[in-house]
Amino acid sequence: MSTANGDAAAESATPLVRVDDVHTYYGKSHILHGVSLTVGRGEVVGLLGRNGVGKSTTLKTIMGLVQPSRGTVAFGGNAITGLPPHKLARMGIGYVPEDRRIFRLLTVMENLRTGLDRAGVGEDKRKALLDKVFAYFPVLAERRSQAGGTLSGGEQQMLAIARAMMLEPRIILLDEPTEGLMPRMVSQIGQIIEALHDEGIAILLVEQNVPLTLQASKRVYIMEKGLVRHHCAASEIDVNDAVIKQYLGV
Amino acid sequence: MTTAPLDKAMPLGKVRLSHTATFWIVFGIVMAALIVAPLVLPPFWRGFLTEILIWGLLAMSSDLLIGYTGMVSFGHSAFFGLGMYGAAAALIVVSPPNLWLAVLFGLFGAAAAAAFVAYFSTRLRDIYFAITTLIFSQIFYVIIFTWTSVTGGENGLIFDQPHFTIPFLVNVPFNSTTMHWFVLAVVTASYLILRRITRSPFGMVLQSIRENEARTRAIGYPVERYKIVSVMLSGLFAGLAGVLYAVQKEFAAPDFVYFLTSGEAVIYNVMGGIGTLVGPIVGAGFFQLLRQLLSQWFGDQFPYLIPLGIIFVAIIIFLPQGLLGFARRWLNR
Amino acid sequence: MGAIVEFLHSIPIDLLIIQTVNGIVTGMILALVASGLTLIFGIMDVVNFAHGELFMLGAYMGVIAFAVTGNFWLALVLAALIIGLFGAALQIVTLRPLIGRDPLNTILATFGVSLVLQNYALWQFGPVARKMSEPIGAEFTLFYLQYPWYRIVIAVLSGAIIGALWLFLKFSKFGVWIRATTQDRVMAQAMGIPVPLVYTGVFALGAAMAAASGVLFAPFGGVDSSMGLQWVLEAFIVVVVGGMGNLAGSIVAAIFISLLEAYAAVWLNPSQAVIVSFVVLILTLLFRPTGLFATPK
User: Fold this and answer.
1) Domain hosting residue C76, numbered range
2) Nearest-Cα residue of chain A relative to residue C184
């Protein structure tokens, strides 16, 4: 799938992911009040907003980790609301959660295997995927027999992304990848996102880091109190924009 | 709510009773039925009904732990058994056999077992507690089974039924009807006491422990103390059931200390509806009735626990509120 | 001084050695039963009360399969397979609907299942114990006894099965799935691991192990419908003493407890020897509630 499409082409084709008027509750708390957004094939889309507005919940709803009480989610044109997460992972949705959640007691290699050991992956494909991911993240190759819990924060973030890549996803849901990382690593994350984009993988990026998001994304959504309040192309605004100050300002 | 015009008499169907009123009316009806029952039932069913009440008491005591405090215990057979053997001891050792002494000894025995279990209940949660209580039941079982010289071992103990005595006033032997009334009185009193307890501030704390123990502790309640009291109360009432059983049946046997008795108490509890106090009695009745019917239709050897066990599992999966909960929802339609 | 010497002389050393061997043999079977139990608990957080009944039904299946095929080892495999599948069916019907509910419910449900299975066996097979002949008749001389080689074989085989389980968990694809699911069920799902299937598989595995222990034990002790109960209680004690979910711990605990019981049996009668395990449990709960042999994490 070509990644050099113009805006027009991306908007007229069926979006890869379509979230339509989704309401999600945690117990009695009404978190999402009717969220709607789309991600086109191969597109990098940013999702900005303050803490607690429901950005992570939106990702979790797409991934099937929470069920919406109303609204639909579609992937590649097919309705996926209500499907269990493991099916969605197999269908090509990768998920990199906040706080990474790598399997701490499994080795780096075993972490990767959780995504790698599936039907349809022959020896050659296996080797190719591993080689690719180790090329991206050489430090993981070094530490492949070490337990995940012994890795540093930045290394764990890389492992979390690498693990998702093992699924050969069409889209990766990235939840606050730069949280808790040193500034040096933030630009590395930016490079990784770009590399993934070059491969044709779509990305829905939830972030608090506005400059990174604006630089990496084609379009951004801004959420407040469980709803999308603003939607525009990333090129149309910058860090000092009134909109940014309004919804993300301190 | 519109008020009916005052010149028309209000039809009874439109009267809305308060919760308490409904409760006492239903309670009154049920009590009346239970009092009259032995007068109209044939002897076998009289004794059967009395037994249901006793098992109901045992299940109620178990409900205090499971339904209200959230602690699954398989230790009730120990409380029940020690109540039974304690009463037996009094009835054998003291002559003429004295009813109240039997009650005293039985409660004492049960309290001792309860203290033992209570100690561990404060250190263990959930599953560990459940397994430990089960093993304790078995410890008591092995002790009673093998200490033949004192407990009669496998054969148990047989003794005479005491008279119903009020010092200086009454001294009459029981017959199956008066025995039924005596048991009914004890069980009803126990029910009312337990009901009072569960509705008191103490009871509220227990339920809060069931809902979220960590939070209850964080608020500042001495959770351990509450748990100990809960176990002691539960043990006492279970022991009381054991005393009643010994007095009614005139024998004590190790079978009742086998953990299966605890298991059955839990089954009655779950079938009837945990956390309701009445549910366990209903569950006991349902279980025993079904068992009796099955053995009458298919013969004594019929493995009644197979269909009953399946029903039990089905209720857990499909009717987690028990039969009572199901009836309640059905009535509230 | 003389009294001490006399006491030392009176200790039946040969009897103790024989009991050591017996203790290790029973211990290995107990370890196998307990491994299945701790596997199911560690991975699914389910206390499987019905485990003893799976052991018992495995033994009965073994007896039947042996009668049909005439080959003990074939009967062992068949029994394990059949009960394994039965365990999977059981989990799907009774435990899957309870996932996410209060763990109280699974304890009660498996308890109910154990009642049904035990009474079914009693009804179907009757109260008379079945005997199964040992597949290896040869014996060797241990002091004044003719000790059957078969018992040594059971111990070794049990150890082998546990070892195979460990290798399976450590290296195979399903082993990775199982360990990932145990650590983080949600992320395991997000990685495409079919968690409901993993749970069913683990339960089936535990059931198969219980069944295998039953068949191995059958020539040793006979088969009757109440054997499950005794074993599951001991297995629970082993699991608690060894540390819930700790495979190595349960093995050590199993042998430890069996040895103590075997020694106690020299002086006490068998039904009283069982008190030893109770005592060990109480001491563990008092002083090291996370398990005597648990490795601190």
Assistant:
1) 31-226
2) A103
Q: Is C189 within 8 Å of chain A by CB?
A: yes
Report the chain C residue with the minimal C-alpha distance to residue B66: C104
Is the residue at C269 inside a domain?
A: no
Give C91 to chain A, closest Cα distance, Å.
19
**Cβ separation of B305 and C281 shorter than 8 Å?**
no
How far is C-alpha A45 from the chain's CA centre?
Answer: 9
Q: Which CATH architecture has domain A9-104+172-248?
A: 3-Layer(aba) Sandwich (3.40)
Chain A segment 158-187 residues within 8 A of C by beta carbon are: 163, 167
Q: Is the pTM higher than 0.90?
A: no
By CB neighbour count within 10 A (0-12 exposed, 13-18 middle, 19+ buried), where does A77 fall? exposed
Q: Is C99 on the interface with A (CB under 8 A)?
A: no
Per-residue pLDDT tens listing for chain A (250 residues): 444 444 444 445 688 999 999 999 988 889 999 999 999 999 999 999 988 889 999 999 999 999 999 999 999 889 999 899 999 999 999 999 988 899 999 999 999 999 988 877 888 989 999 999 999 899 999 998 999 889 988 899 999 999 999 999 999 999 999 988 888 888 889 999 999 999 999 999 999 888 899 999 999 999 998 999 989 998 888 888 888 888 887 6
* 3-state per-residue secondary structure call for chain A: CCCCCCHHHHHHCCCCEEEEEEEEEECCEEEEEEEEEEECCCCEEEEECCCCCCHHHHHHHHCCCCCCCEEEEEECCEECCCCCHHHHHHHCEEEECCCCCCCCCCEHHHHHHHHHCCCCCCHHHHHHHHHHHHHHCHHHHHCCCCEHHHCCHHHHHHHHHHHHHCCCCCEEEEECCCCCCCHHHHHHHHHHHHHHHHCCCEEEEEECCHHHHHHHCCEEEEEECCEEEEEEEHHHCCCCCHHHHHHHCC
- For chain A, give every domain's residue range: 9-104+172-248
Domain count, chain C: 1
